[in-house]
Design a protein that fits this description.
This protein is mainly β. Helix content is 5%, strand content 47%. The strands form four sheets. It has a four-stranded mixed β-sheet with strand order 1-3-4-2. A four-stranded antiparallel β-sheet has the order 5-6-7-8, with no helix packed on it. The chain has a four-stranded antiparallel β-sheet with strand order 9-10-11-12, with no helix packed on it.
Length: 177
């Protein structure tokens, strides 16, 4: 799903109920069209360096949107906003899997059910820099070089969470390709 940059006037023309992420004093504005006669949704944020993320669940039923310290989920059938969540730190990455959506911020791991309810959330021992799906598990790489292996069904950490991480995380730039 393509995110299109807007100016403030164009953003303000989007109905307020469709501004899924709206920051108090934004400097950046964008829209994305989820199609299916559901139309355009808008997002706004502050940073010139951070790009918004838009991910569609594999079944196409949920559209996940995140930027800076906010995240939202939209129902792909009705267009209703299922989740609008402020985050305690900056969003690093989202991965949509068949049954869940995983997200990491700099400080925590979040696991959501298909329709936006939170299945699990955990504080991370260090700053997260990326996440990959490896042999059915989520592997979160930390700034320290360590990694955590998390079961996406339960959210539980498995194995030794310490030690050098043998996996390279799927960075946001790679995920957008």
């Amino acid at each position: 799903m393509k995110v299109q940059t807007l100016n403030e006037v164009e953003f303000n023309q989007i109905d307020a109920s469709r501004q899924v992420i709206a920051t108090e004093y934004p400097r950046q504005f964008a829209m994305f069209d989820i199609g299916k006669n559901l139309g355009v949704y808008g997002i706004s944020w502050n940073s010139d360096l951070i790009e918004p993320m838009v991910k569609v669940s594999p079944d196409g039923q949920t559209i996940w949107v995140g930027v800076e310290q906010k995240m939202a989920a939209i129902c792909g059938e009705t267009g209703n906003i299922l989740l609008a969540l402020p985050l305690t730190s900056y969003l690093v990455q989202m991965l949509t899997l068949s049954k869940v959506t995983a997200a990491i911020t700099e400080e925590e791991f979040l696991l959501f059910n298909r329709r936006g309810s939170i299945r699990s959330n955990k504080a991370l021992p260090d700053t997260a820099i990326g996440m990959s799906l490896v042999q059915g598990d989520l592997v979160i790489k930390l700034l320290s070089g360590e990694c955590l292996t998390i079961n996406p069904e339960t959210g539980s950490c498995r194995g030794n969470p310490l030690g050098d991480c043998p996996y390279e995380p799927l960075y946001v730039e790679q995920a957008l390709r």
